[in-house]
UniProtKB/TrEMBL annotation:
Residues 16-142 form the VOC domain. GO terms for molecular function: lyase activity. It comes from Prunus dulcis. Pfam families: Glyoxalase. InterPro entries: Glyas_Bleomycin-R_OHBP_Dase (IPR029068), Glyas_Fos-R_dOase_dom (IPR004360), VOC_core (IPR037523). This is Lactoylglutathione lyase / glyoxalase I family protein.
Length: 185
């Protein structure tokens, strides 16, 4: 079916996000990270696979690790909140908050970057860091910002969907909401 034909059809009958698959150089190193840092639990993986890997699960989502020793070595690079990443919601205070997340990452000697996003007086705290293979992880209190469909928003005449989607490109990369703190042990 071509894209043009899809636009006239209803969306596919999806239920939820099931899992994210990640290539990794060492299943063992990645397992330790996702268990110890993010609290995932190793679950049974089908025995019919003929390659090294592991399945983890928690928070309603799975992470499937696929070992690929041929992967290029991860070169440490700056943590960029605008890069591809997986985001996890942190529990609201008093149990856990972003401040506690930062303290725990510091205790583990992990490098991270923080950012604050603000919309209509509502603030979202974000913490970004890399896993052992360089995949970026975000932890945030994103529940602070309500989910409002674009169709329900009042727009100025120039606020077409195309303008809204491209406006981000016009934002300078030195925005104060982008990067407020870099922690590197």
């Amino acid at each position: 079916m071509e894209i043009e034909e899809l636009s006239n059809c209803e969306a596919l009958p999806l239920l939820s996000l099931n899992h994210v698959s990640l290539l990794c150089r060492s299943v063992w190193d990645s397992l330790r990270f996702y268990e110890d840092v993010l609290g995932f639990v190793v679950i049974k993986r089908p025995s019919s696979f003929n390659f090294n890997g592991a399945w983890l699960y928690n928070y309603g989502i799975g992470i499937h690790l696929i070992e690929s020793p041929a992967m290029e070595d991860y070169e440490s690079r700056p943590i960029n909140p605008k890069d591809n990443h997986i985001s996890f919601q942190v529990r609201a205070a008093p149990c856990t908050d972003v401040g506690l997340v930062k303290r725990r990452l510091q205790d583990m000697g992990m490098r991270y970057v923080t950012a604050v996003v603000e919309d209509d007086g509502v603030k979202v705290d974000q913490v970004f860091f890399h896993d052992p293979d360089g995949y970026m992880i975000e932890l945030c209190n994103c529940e602070n910002i309500p989910i409002i469909p674009i169709s329900a928003c009042a727009f100025k005449p120039r606020d077409t969907a195309e303008n809204l989607l491209t406006r981000e490109q016009d934002v300078p990369s030195t925005s104060s909401a982008e990067q407020s703190f870099v922690y590197a042990p």
